[in-house]
Every structure is written in structure tokens, then in C-alpha cells.
Amino acid sequence: MAHFDSHISTGEARELLNRLELLTLYHDDWLSAFIRAIVCDEPLDADYFSEDAHLTCRFGQWLDQEIHESLRQTAIVSDIRLIHRSMHRAYRNLFLVWQQNRRLSALEYDEANVKKTAFQLSVSTLQFMIYDYLFQVDPLTKTLNRTKLLSTLERERNRISETGEQSVIVMVDIDYFKKINDTYGHVVGDTVLVQVALFLSSSLRPMDITFRYGGEEFLVYLPGAGEKEAVAILERIRTSLVENRIMIDAGREIHISASFGATLLDPTAEIAFSIEKADRALYKAKQMGRNRVVWLD
Question: Is 211 left (phi over 0), alpha (psi -120 to 50) or beta?
């Protein structure tokens, strides 16, 4: 299954679920109107079966005008757009045949029904993708959570065991985070977590992945990197983070640092082994005074 677009925030994803639920109910009413007109021999508003009904109905207007821009050209939305149009045309043809002949064949009805089922399945697929996305994203930092971490690293472990490629696991811990919470309060602590997550995501390579591991700890995965490249990347991030300023309210800002423990993802061992090894490297970085990168072979 394709992944849901991570540029959508969790709040926007929940709003999208609610919107899809309302639009689905609308199309249920739309379908009922068609069936009622045929079964009860009643007139049907021309808007229901016009040639551009797929653009003027509420669902079509949402697809054409209201959908989040980063989703507009995704594969699942493109599929829904085509299937939605096909369904409208199938029911339009069904109604026009009935208008002319006052009877329908089972084949004509089944063809329209298949298009309706395809539409419902495509929308259900999008809804499932959104639920899956929400289940895998940390609600505070918007990074991926530990559930997604384990499945991702397991997939990567299997991949590099076949390709022989090196990849790196990094444990990242915000230095003296408890002191930040104790001094400024948990609201500021949450702000720091969000800002560090954004800083990591924007500072890493496009293929790198950031996960919220727990508390003030993040796990960063660097695919295709060896020791030399990984340490260079992490040193760049570490020094930039120290220079970065986090505004906590009007006129007040704080400076933070982080410790990094890195190691290779071992394709021959369980994922927990590599994570524990990176955690040992992180512990060593803290013992050595924090705000540093430690590599563990």
C-alpha cells in the first residue's frame, strides 16, 4: 500500500477523515435519488445526471477545488478522480436508458453498480491510508513513532542484507532536557521537542528518516551512509543546533545542544541489537560531557 503524504499534519488528516465521511454520506444520498427516481418513476433533477455532474457534485467540488494541495496529484487521489467520474457517467447512462425505455437490463444495472463499488473502495483505501498515517505519527513532533520505526528498520535490515549497503542508526538526546522542563515548564519543553524535530528533519538528507523514540530522544536513520559520512552529517547538525535559537516567548530565547550516538545497522542481528548499540554510544557521549557525536563499531 502507498504511504499517505507526510506533509499533511495530524490535525489536517483528522479533518480530512471527517470531510470524507460527510462526502461519502452525500454520495449515498445521490445514489438513493437515482434509485428512487427509477423505482418510483419520479422525476430527477437534471443536475444529478448532467455531463459535468462529476465536477459539480460536492465530492467533485472537493476534488477539484478544496483538496489539500500536496495531495492533489497523488496516485490515490488521481485514481479516485477517475473512478468518481466513471461512476457518474455510468449512472447518467443508466438513467438516460431508463428514461427512454422505462426498463433496464440486469447488465446495465450491474455495470453501474460495479462503478459504484469501485468508487466506495477507492475512498475506503484513502481513509485507511489516513488512519494508518495517524497511527504511525507522533502527535506532538509530527515525526514517525516507534511503531513505524520498528517496521521501517526491519524492512531496511532485510534490504541491506541483500544489497550489502551500509546504513546507520543514530540515537539523539536533547541535553539537559529535564532542566528545561523544570525551569520553563512543560509547554516550553514541548516547544523545544517540536523545534528539534523540525530542525533534524530540515537538516538531514531527503532520504533520511527521523523517529520520536520517547521523551527527549529521537532515532535518526541514515540509509546508504557509512561511518565517515554519517559522522560528518551529525557533526554538521550538532554544531548548527548549538547556534540555533529557540524562541520561548516574546523577547526570550534559549540555546540547546544534543548528544548523538551512532552505529551501523547490523543486517545479521535483530533490530533491538543495533538500537541498543547506538544507545550505548549515546550513553558514552553523555559521559564524555554531552554535545558530541560518538561512533561505536
Answer: beta
Pull the grid cell for residue 85. Answer: 467520474
Nearest to 147 by CA among 159, 139, 195, 206: 139
To the query of whether residue 12 is one of the catalytic residues in this protein, the response is: no
Confidence at residue 1, expressed as pLDDT on a 0 to 100 scale: 40
pTM (2 decimals)? 0.67
Structural domain 146-295, CATH architecture: 2-Layer Sandwich (3.30)
Under DSSP, the state recorded for 45 is: -
User: For 14-38, what is each residue's pLDDT tens digit?
Assistant: 889 999 999 999 888 888 888 888 8
Fold of 10-136: Four Helix Bundle (Hemerythrin (Met), subunit A) (1.20.120)
| 262, 295 contact by CB (below 8 A) | yes
Helix (H, G, I), strand (E, B) or coil at 221: strand
Domain spans, the chain: 10-136, 146-295
The strand ranges marked E within the chain are 167-174, 209-214, 217-223, 245-249, 252-255, 258-264, 293-295
Looking at every residue in the chain, the average pLDDT score rounds to 90
The secondary structure of the chain in percent helix, strand, coil, rounded to multiples of 5, reads: 60, 15, 25
- Lookup result for grid cell 466513471: 86
CA pair distance 184, 143, nearest whole angstrom: 24
- List pLDDT tens digits, range 91-120: 999 889 988 888 888 888 898 899 999 999
Q: Catalytic pick from 69, 111, 154, 216?
A: 216
